Amino acid sequence: RVAERLVKIVEVHGPRPSAQKRYEKLYPIFKNAYKALVPIYEQIASLK
Hints:
With 48 residues, this protein is mainly alpha-helical. The chain has helices at residues 2-6, 20-46.
């Protein structure tokens, strides 16, 4: 994936069970945002 080439993962945090309902609402929004940004990520990657 394009984003994996652009971002270095330094630290990973696991989900908090107490926030599950919020995650369930936010995750579809995140997925849509990511898909919409893929062309922009590709443009950025092509600048290297």
